[in-house]
TrEMBL record, chain A:
It comes from Stappia albiluteola. The chain crosses the membrane at residues 96-119, 126-146, 166-182, 189-208, 220-247. The keyword S-adenosyl-L-methionine does not apply. Keywords: Membrane, Transmembrane, Transmembrane helix. This is CbtA family protein. Pfam families: CbtA (PF09490).
UniProtKB/TrEMBL annotation, chain B:
The keyword Membrane applies. Keywords: Membrane, Transmembrane, Transmembrane helix. The chain crosses the membrane at residues 20-41. This is CbtB-domain containing protein. It holds the Pfam family CbtB. It comes from the Bacteria.
Length: 255, 62
């Protein structure tokens, strides 16, 4: 069981991760690179840097500006001491690491999604997998993006740990709520609880900076948020249906 | 005799269910670990390597 689960998840994770890295190369990476040119240019503008420094005093962090928040970090951990400020070179090396990280995330999400399907449904095939993939998209992309829209480098944002906590809380609440709504066969009271669970993180609200600042034009940020959601949607649809397809194929061979 | 067959059928089903549960829990923990290390861990080397993927998937990132 364990071997089959990990094998199917690995296959589907590679298919979905590869799809994601191709989509990224065409739709999100070009916007990230363009946003970084604004971010780098702003480092030469004293006025804006002053605004950022001031913002950091009250706990606002400029996205992806390593130097600006280095002073706020605690003592460097083991990996930081070994690798320092290493970053892949722009070009082939950066594309390589983006692809590898997409594949690893694909495998990770595939394991979680297949585990959920095995616990929550009796029949697993491509179309059931697609439905679960769409639920995964709702839980891991759609719901968190309402409070924390996908951001380009060079945007002001609230403290990272707070945003990560809100992000994971929203994912767990949405996934749990969808489970109560769709996967459990219990009464209307539990389904109502599921709806409430999905709403709670948005009533509480995501952590936001006290003032919105960005180095890149707003149009670029808007375009990026849309592109990112499209990439995630395709990734989850491919992930879910290939999980279902590979799982049902294995069953035929067993029989 | 019938009762014995029924009991063993239930226990076989129960064991299969326990197998699924064990494998699913292992996959959940392992999958979460992979997603966390690529998408959320703070060390610079992990952040910089996965930077563009973190942004593309809408993970909170600095």
């Amino acid at each position: 069981m364990i071997n089959r689960l990990f094998g199917v998840a690995l296959g589907a994770g590679l298919i979905a991760g590869l799809t994601l890295s191709v989509l990224q190369a065409f739709f999100t990476v070009p916007i990230i690179l363009e946003a970084e040119t604004y971010e780098t240019a702003s480092a030469l503008t004293p006025g804006l840097q002053h605004a950022i420094a001031h913002a950091n005093d009250v706990g606002i962090w400029l996205a992806s500006s390593g130097e600006a928040h280095a002073a706020h970090e605690a003592a460097p951990g083991f990996l930081d001491r070994v690798f320092g400020e290493w970053a892949p070179e722009d070009g082939l090396e950066r594309t390589f690491y983006t692809t590898v990280s997409s594949l690893v995330v694909g495998f990770g999400f595939a394991l979680m999604a297949l585990a959920a399907m095995l616990l929550g449904t009796k029949r697993i095939d491509a179309s059931v997998g697609l439905a679960w993939g769409i639920a995964g998209f709702a839980a891991f992309s759609l719901a968190p993006s309402l409070g924390l829209p996908p951001e380009i480098p060079g945007s002001a944002a609230a403290d990272l740990a707070g945003r990560q906590t809100w992000w994971w809380s929203t994912v767990i609440a949405t996934a749990g709520g969808l489970w109560l709504l769709l996967a459990s066969r219990r009464g209307p009271a539990l389904k109502a609880a599921g709806v409430a669970l999905i709403l709670v993180p948005h009533v509480v609200g995501a952590p936001h900076p006290e003032a919105f600042e960005a180095t890149a034009p707003a149009e670029l940020a808007g375009h990026f948020a849309a592109a990112s959601l499209v990439c995630s949607a395709v990734f989850w649809a491919v992930l879910g249906s290939s999980l279902g397809w590979l799982w049902s194929r294995g069953k035929e061979e067993d029989a | 005799m019938e009762q014995v067959t029924a009991i063993s059928a239930v226990s076989v089903k129960g064991r299969a269910r326990a197998d699924v549960l064990k494998a699913a829990m292992l996959a959940l923990v392992f999958g979460f670990g992979l997603v966390y290390a690529t998408g959320f861990a703070h060390p610079n080397v992990l952040h910089n390597a996965a930077h563009d993927s973190r942004h593309a998937l809408g993970f909170p990132c600095h």
